[in-house]
Amino acid sequence: MIKIGLVGAGFMGRMHAKCYEALRERGGFEVVAVADLNTAQAAELAEPLGAAVFASAEEMMAQADINTVDICLPTFLHAELALQAMDKGMNLFIEKPVCRNSEEAARLLRKQEETGAAVMIGQCIRFWPEYTELRRIYEAGRYGKLTSAVFTRRSPHPDWVWEQWLDDEAKSGSAALDLHIHDVDYVRALLGEPQRISTELVRDRGANVHIHSLYRYGDVVVGLEGGWDYPPSFPLEMAFTVQFEQATVVFSSNAAPTLRVFTASGEVLEPELEQPDLSGAASGDSGGNISSLGGYYNELRYFIDRLSSGEPIAESTLADGCASLALLERALAAAER
User: Fold this and answer.
1) pLDDT in tens, 77-126
2) What InterPro entries does the record point to (predicted)?
3) What pTM value is reported for the model?
4) For the chain, how far is it from start to end, CA to CA, in angstroms?
5) How far apart are CA 200 and CA 211, in angstroms?
6) What is 106-125 written as a DSSP string?
7) Element (H, E) at 46
8) Mind listing the pLDDT tens digit for each residue in 220-265?
9) Are strands 68-71 and 91-95 parallel, antiparallel or unpaired?
10) How far is residue 146 from each of residues 139, 180, 186, 190, 213, measured CA to CA in Å?
11) Burial (CB count within 10 angstroms: exposed 0-12, middle 13-18, buried 19+), residue 301
């Protein structure tokens, strides 16, 4: 039995708790404990799951009967807790980004090699229905070769977080690491490491970094743009436009239908997307600016299924998370040059 301790009762912790509620009927796991400095918030998540409440991850790992830790803490706290958990023989799910920098990433990789822990990183876009459909289209060669692409992720300033930690670039890595890493990771999963990168940054206040990058893959150019410097009234938008030889695939989270395919023969197709069954999750506001649990549900389902079956985690591994962090650092270094 997978016995999970969820650490962090903020925005992402709430998202994960709702996914676990929706996944309960699948069996094979239980959320045994929820830990957070704010024990009242932790209790809100723990109550529908029948979990115990702890004031710290250390207390939880010492006292609760768990074998898996789900880390939903601010980025700068990921590495030390993950190292402690692996030392205790725990398996791990770590919310993205994996950690703050490549030095921490190297320590995590060494510890995983020492302990053999199963570790997955919460790069949820790999599991988002529109993005998984794009990956199927690309890998099947359905419309010929990919010739160019643009990926964007734009958000209002994230004012809902604990003690505004995202505004401290030393803790968050700015919008580049917290927000833009989604598209960096997805493009790397789709196309691999780019041969060349050019990057421009626009800086506003604090960690409000708006990033524009071009990745070169042979004769293919991929544009990536991201920032959270938009006003509160601006809705989160994740989007892509991907050009193939025989079609253009377009997605916007703010459009209906979200995903369309414009073929060279003049058709406009609306692919049917596999949607997760979220009926088991209690209703209520999860906070933040993301209304769909889809990608979060899919990634946690994958994580639980892999641990249950004993199969190795093959998607969004610790090595993947660390490589995507290194690619982002490479893009930021290109901006400095």
Assistant:
1) 999 999 999 999 999 999 999 999 999 999 999 999 999 999 999 999 99
2) Gfo/Idh/MocA-like_OxRdtase_N, Gfo/Idh/MocA_Oxidoreductases, GFO_IDH_MocA-like_dom, NAD(P)-bd_dom_sf
3) 0.94
4) 51
5) 6
6) HHHHHHHHHH---EEEE-GG
7) helix 39-49
8) 999 999 999 899 999 999 999 999 999 999 999 999 999 999 999 9
9) parallel
10) 10, 22, 15, 11, 18
11) middle
Q: Token pair for residue 132?
A: 């998984």
Burial class (CB in 10 A: 0-12, 13-18, 19+), 244: buried
For residues 313 and 120, the answer to whether their CB atoms sit within 8 Å is: yes
Cis geometry, peptide bond prior to residue 156 (ω within 30 degrees of 0):
no
In terms of Cβ atoms closer than 10 Å to its own Cβ (0-12, 13-18, 19+), residue 330 is middle
* Structure tokens given for 139: 């890998």
Sequence letter at residue 251: F
Contacts of 266 (CB under 8 A, 6+ apart): none
Q: Nearest to residue 57, comparing CAs of 16, 94, 5?
A: 5
> Which residue from 126, 327, 180, 151 is spatially nearest to 243, judged by alpha carbons?
151
DSSP state letter for 10? S
Query: In the block, which residue shows the tokens 């359905």?
Result: 142
SS (H, E, C) 145-158: CEEEEEEEEEEECC
Residue 249 is inside which H or E element, if any? strand 247-252
Measured CA to CA, the distance from residue 104 to residue 98 in angstroms comes to 9
Q: Decide: residue 322, CB within 10 A, 0-12 exposed, 13-18 middle, 19+ buried.
A: buried
pLDDT on residue 206: 62
